[in-house]
Design brief:
Chain lengths: 200, 719
C-alpha cells in the first residue's frame, strides 16, 4: 500500500525536480506570445518538440553587426535551419528609442543581410525580453525539444566588435546545438553575454 | 651670430626639457578624445613611471570599467614597446554605476585617466629615448554603442632625473593616489544568505559614517549589477552591506572581490580614502537572485502585494469587523456554547423581558470589554517588541492546555457530570441567581475566550487594518468586532418572541444540553492535537492524564458535596492537586518558549509536497520564476484545518497544482515564528489563514480565508 502510493507519487516528484530554475540555463524556457514582423502571433509552445534558438538582436548595435557583417549569424541560421532548428530573432527595443525598428524595417534589414530566421519578433513591450532577462544584443538561448534551456549567454568567446574575430572564436551556440542534438550534455551551458544593452 | 643662434637653440632645448617629450596629437573621434600622457617628463633608470591613457568622452557618453556590468566592453590597450621595458596592467580608477534603463553599466563619464606603470631597466642609458606605441580599443556608448580604437604614441627620454609632466603630471598623481586600495584598519566579512550576500564592515574606532556606498564586483556572474544594495549601521556600530546575488550565477562564487566606493570616504589612519578594494572569502551558501530586468516588478512581487489594510478606510474596517463578529457566532468554536446560551433563555426564570434584555446587554458588554482587553494585550506585546498577531494566544502551549482544560470542564458540565455550584461554597451558590448581569457579562467573556481560535471572513482584513493603526483606532475596530459578535444574542434577548415557537422546556432540553457537550469534547480533542503539533507526544499524554485526573477530582468532589464523607473531599482535593502537578510542566518555561513548530509531521509513506516556509526558500522559488502557493496556517486555526482537508488535500486541486508546476509552501504558525508574523504583516494580515499565490510576472494573488475548490481553480487559471 505504501509502495503503491510512493510509486504513484514518483513521476510527480521527478517532474517537479526536473523543472529546475526557469529562464536561467538549466531551467524551463518561459512560454511567450510575440508578434512577428507581419503582425502574426508566434508562441514558443508552437515549436514544442523542436530545437529553438532565441537570438536577441538590434541592427543598430555594433556587436550584432559584427556577426552579420561577417555572415556569422546568417551562417548559423542556415546551417541549423536545415536541421529543423527553429530560429527566432527577437528585437526588444522599446518604441520610444531612436533605435526602434518596425516590422517592415526589420524585414528589410534582414533581407539585405541575407538572414534566415524562421520568424522575427518585434517585442516592443519588452515582455519576452524581461521574461528571459535578456541583457545584451546579441544574447542567445538554445531550447531543447522538451522546453529546457540548454544554453544561455554569449554567442562566442571573443568579446569584441571586430567581425574578423568570428572566424577564430569558439561558437557556444553551435557547440550547444551539436552536443544537444547528439544527445550529449552541453559542456558550456551558461556564459555571460556580451554586446550592447537591450534598449528596454 | 651663430653663438646667439646656439644659445637660443640651447635655451629652447632647456625649455622643452632636453631631447624632448614627443607625443602624437590626441586622436579624436566623434565622441572621444584619446591620448597617452605621462606623470613625469622622463624615464629614470630602474624606477617606475606612471603613464596614462586619457579618454575624454563627449557629454552623455561613457566608456567601461574592467567589469563593464550588464553590457559593454572594458577598454583595452595593446602595447608595442622596446623589448627591455616592463609594463603593468591598467590600474582602474573607481567606476561609477551608470544606469541604462533597467540595466546598469560600470564605467566612466566625462574624462578618465587610466594609469599604467612602466619601467626601464637600471642599466638604461640616460639620453636615449623610449617610444611607446599603443593601440587602445574601447566601447563608447550613450544610447547607441560605438566600438572605437586609436593608435597612440608617446616618446619619453631616459634621464637621471625627471620633472613633473606639464598639464597632466599632477592629475595622474592624483588619480594614482585615489586608486582603490585595501582599507587599513577596516575588517570586512562576507556571508551568503539565500539570494543575498551580507558584507559586514567593522570600522576602526571613531571612524565617521562613510555616507552612501556602492560595491562593484571585479567579476561577472556574482553580484547582480542592477540589483538593489542596502547599507545600514546595526546596533553594535558595524556596517552591514546587503548585496543581491546574480541571476545568472557563476558556479565558482567563492570570494567576494571588488571595489567599494564611499561618498564620504572611509577613514584610514589620519585621512580618508574614497574607494577601497575588498577581497574576502564567501562563507555560507548562495542561490541565484531574481531577474534583474524585472526589478521594478520584483519590488512589488517580493515585498508583498499592496496590503489590503492600506486600501481599507477606517469606516470600512469597522463595517468588516462588525460583519466578521456576526459571522463568528457561526464558527465551530463558538456555536455550541452560544446556542446553549440561547436555548437557556427559554428555560423558566427568563420570563421578565426587561431583565432578559438587560442580561443580553450585559453579555454584549462582556464580549466587547473582552475583545478590547485582548486588543490591549496584543498592542502591549507589540509595544514590547514581540512579533505577535491575532491568534497569538494560541501559539503558546500553556494557553492551549488551559483552553483544553476549560473546554473539558465545560463539556463535563454539559454532560451532567457536575454542576458549577459544586465548585463554589454553598454560601455563594445563589450568587448566579443574585447577580444575573454579572453572570451574563462573564459568559460574554467566556464566549470571546472560546471564540479566539477562530477567525471569520472579513475579520482578517479588518484585523490587519486595525493592528497597523494607532491604538485608539485599533480599539475602535475591536469594539466593532465585539458588537458584531454580541449582536445576534442581544437581538434574541431583545425580541424574545421566537421562544413561543420552541416546544415547552422538558427532557428534550436536558438531552440537547448533553448532546452539545460532544462538540465541546471534540474541541478538547482538537486542542490536544494542537498541543501535540506544538510540542510532542509526551505533552499530549501529560494533558490527557490531567484531564482524566481532573474528571476524577470533579467526580469525587461531587460525591463529597452530595453527602459523602471526608474521604471523598480528600480524594477530590488530592485529585485537583495531582491534576495541577501533572499539567504544570506544560505551563513551564521550557515548553512555553518560542520554539519553531516541529516539522516532523510529514505523512509517512507518501512524499509530502509541501515545503516548509522560510523567507530564503520563498525568494529562491519565486526567483526561479515558478508559481508558488503559500499556505499560512496553524494547527489551532479551525478554518485553516477545514480548508486544508476539504480543498487543499482534494485530489483534483492537487492535480491542478502539479499540472501547473506550482511549488507548495506551508508557513506553519502553530508556534510563534517572527518570520511568519512579519510575512503576514506584509500582506496586511495579523492572523491565519492566509493563502497567497505568487504568479511569475504578475502581482501575487491573495485568496479568501474560506477556500472553495473553484476559487483555487480560478486563481490557478490566471497563471
Amino acid at each position: 500500500m505504501k509502495f503503491a502510493a510512493t510509486l504513484r507519487a514518483l513521476p510527480l516528484v521527478l517532474a517537479l525536480a526536473a523543472m529546475g530554475a526557469a529562464a536561467a540555463p538549466g531551467g524551463l524556457a518561459p512560454d511567450f506570445t510575440g508578434t512577428d514582423t507581419s503582425g502574426k502571433a508566434v508562441r514558443l509552445s508552437d515549436y514544442k518538440g523542436k530545437f529553438v534558438v532565441l537570438e536577441w538582436t538590434n541592427p543598430e548595435c555594433p556587436f550584432v553587426r559584427k556577426h552579420y557583417d561577417s555572415q556569422n549569424m546568417q551562417g548559423l541560421q542556415k546551417e541549423f535551419g536545415a536541421k529543423d532548428v527553429v530560429w527566432l530573432a527577437i528585437n526588444s527595443t522599446n518604441k520610444s528609442s531612436s533605435e526602434f525598428k518596425t516590422g517592415a524595417q526589420m524585414d528589410a534589414w534582414l533581407k539585405t543581410n541575407g538572414a534566415a530566421p524562421k520568424a522575427t519578433l518585434i517585442d516592443a513591450s519588452s515582455e519576452t525580453g524581461r521574461a528571459y532577462s535578456a541583457k545584451t544584443t546579441p544574447h542567445m538561448f538554445v531550447v531543447d525539444p522538451s522546453g529546457k534551456i540548454v544554453y544561455g549567454g554569449a554567442i562566442d568567446d571573443k568579446r569584441s566588435a571586430n567581425p574578423a574575430d568570428t572566424k577564430t572564436a569558439n561558437n557556444y551556440v553551435r557547440a550547444a546545438l551539436n552536443e544537444s542534438m547528439a544527445g550529449k550534455p552541453v559542456t558550456v551551458a551558461s556564459t555571460t553575454p556580451y554586446g550592447c544593452s537591450v534598449k528596454y | 651670430m651663430l653663438r646667439l643662434f646656439h644659445l637660443a637653440f640651447l635655451l629652447l632645448l632647456l625649455a622643452t626639457g632636453g631631447p624632448g617629450v614627443v607625443h602624437a596629437a590626441p586622436v579624436k573621434t566623434a565622441q572621444v578624445e584619446a591620448e597617452l600622457v605621462s606623470e613625469k617628463t622622463a624615464f629614470v633608470p630602474g624606477q617606475p613611471t606612471t603613464v596614462a591613457l586619457r579618454l575624454k568622452m563627449a557629454d552623455g557618453w561613457h566608456t567601461y570599467w574592467q567589469n563593464p556590468g550588464d553590457s559593454g566592453l572594458p577598454t583595452t590597450i595593446t602595447w608595442t614597446l622596446p623589448p627591455d621595458m616592463a609594463v603593468g596592467p591598467i590600474q582602474w580608477p573607481a567606476p561609477h554605476a551608470l544606469p541604462v534603463g533597467p540595466l546598469v553599466n560600470f564605467g566612466y563619464e566625462g574624462e578618465v585617466l587610466l594609469p599604467i606603470e612602466m619601467q626601464v631597466p637600471a642599466d638604461a642609458v640616460p639620453g636615449t629615448t623610449r617610444t611607446l606605441n599603443a593601440k587602445a580599443e574601447w566601447l563608447v556608448c550613450r544610447e547607441t554603442c560605438i566600438p572605437e580604437e586609436a593608435v597612440l604614441q608617446l616618446v619619453l627620454p631616459v634621464a637621471e632625473r625627471a620633472d613633473v609632466y606639464p598639464q597632466w603630471g599632477s592629475a595622474i598623481a592624483a588619480t594614482r593616489a585615489a586608486l582603490p586600495v585595501p582599507a587599513k584598519g577596516w575588517l570586512f566579512e562576507a556571508k551568503g544568505e539565500g539570494n543575498k550576500v551580507i558584507v559586514t564592515a567593522t570600522a576602526p574606532a571613531g571612524a565617521p559614517a562613510p555616507g552612501n556606498v556602492h560595491f562593484f564586483p571585479f567579476q561577472e556572474g556574482r553580484i547582480e549589477p542592477a540589483g538593489k544594495q542596502t547599507f545600514v549601521r546595526d546596533a553594535n556600530g558595524t556596517f552591514v552591506l546587503t548585496l543581491p546575488v546574480a541571476y545568472q550565477l557563476a558556479a565558482d562564487f567563492k570570494r567576494v572581490s571588488g571595489v567599494l566606493t564611499a561618498s564620504k570616504g572611509l577613514a584610514v589612519g589620519d585621512g580618508l580614502i574614497a574607494a577601497t578594494t575588498i577581497d574576502v572569502p564567501l562563507t555560507g551558501a548562495v542561490v541565484a537572485g531574481p531577474k534583474p530586468v524585472d526589478a521594478s516588478v520584483a519590488a512589488a512581487t517580493f515585498a508583498a502585494p499592496k496590503p489590503a489594510a492600506e486600501s481599507l478606510s477606517l469606516w470600512l474596517a469597522i463595517v468588516f469587523a462588525f460583519v466578521g463578529g456576526v459571522v463568528l457566532n457561526l464558527m465551530p468554536c463558538v456555536f455550541p456554547v452560544l446556542s446553549l446560551k440561547v436555548l437557556s433563555l427559554s428555560t423558566p426564570g427568563h420570563e421578565d423581558v426587561r431583565r432578559l434584555r438587560m442580561e443580553g446587554l450585559a453579555f454584549g458588554a462582556g464580549v466587547v470589554v473582552t475583545f478590547v482587553a485582548l486588543a490591549g494585550l496584543l498592542l502591549a506585546f507589540r509595544a514590547a517588541g514581540e512579533q505577535v498577531g491575532w491568534g497569538f494566544q494560541l501559539q503558546s502551549p500553556a494557553v492551549v492546555s488551559a483552553l483544553a482544560l476549560l473546554f473539558f470542564v465545560l463539556a463535563l458540565n454539559l454532560s451532567g457530570a457536575f454542576e458549577f455550584t459544586l465548585l463554589v461554597p454553598s454560601s455563594a451558590a445563589g450568587w448566579n441567581a443574585r447577580n444575573p448581569y454579572v453572570n451574563a457579562a462573564l459568559s460574554g467573556v467566556l464566549a470571546v475566550v472560546i471564540a479566539s481560535p477562530c477567525t471569520a471572513p472579513f475579520m482578517g482584513a479588518a484585523m490587519g487594518f486595525a493592528l497597523a493603526q494607532p491604538a485608539a483606532l485599533t480599539l475602535m475596530v475591536f469594539v466593532a468586532l465585539g458588537l458584531g459578535m454580541a449582536m445576534p444574542f442581544v437581538l434574541l434577548t431583545w425580541f424574545p418572541g421566537w421562544r413561543r415557537m420552541l416546544p415547552k422546556p422538558g427532557a428534550w432540553m436536558e438531552r440537547m444540553k448533553q448532546f452539545l457537550a460532544f462538540p465541546l469534547y471534540a474541541t478538547v480533542a482538537w486542542l490536544v492535537w494542537v498541543l501535540g503539533a506544538q510540542v510532542d507526544n509526551d505533552a499530549v499524554v501529560r494533558l490527557l492524564v490531567t484531564l482524566v485526573v481532573l474528571a476524577f477530582a470533579l467526580w469525587a468532589w461531587r460525591a463529597y458535596r452530595g453527602g459523602g464523607g471526608r474521604a471523598w473531599s480528600a480524594a477530590g482535593i488530592a485529585g485537583f492537586v495531582a491534576a495541577v502537578y501533572v499539567v504544570s510542566p506544560l505551563f513551564g518555561p521550557t515548553t512555553d518558549k518560542d520554539l519553531p513548530t516541529p516539522q516532523a509531521r510529514t505523512t509517512i509513506g507518501a512524499i509530502d509536497l509541501w515545503q516548509p516556509y522560510t523567507p530564503a526558500k520563498l525568494d529562491e522559488l519565486t526567483a526561479a520564476g515558478k508559481p508558488v502557493f503559500v499556505d499560512f496556517t496553524a494547527a489551532w486555526c479551525v478554518t485553516c484545518q477545514v480548508n486544508k482537508r476539504l480543498v487543499l488535500n482534494d485530489a483534483g486541486i492537487k492535480d491542478e497544482f502539479a499540472r501547473r508546476g506550482v511549488q507548495l509552501v506551508r508557513a506553519d504558525w502553530t508556534r510563534r515564528d517572527p518570520a511568519i508574523t512579519r510575512a503576514l504583516a506584509g500582506f496586511g494580515r495579523q492572523g491565519v489563514p492566509v493563502y497567497v499565490l505568487y504568479r511569475p510576472g504578475k502581482e501575487p494573488m491573495l485568496l479568501p480565508e474560506v477556500l472553495q475548490k473553484q476559487t483555487v481553480l480560478d486563481a490557478l487559471a490566471t497563471l
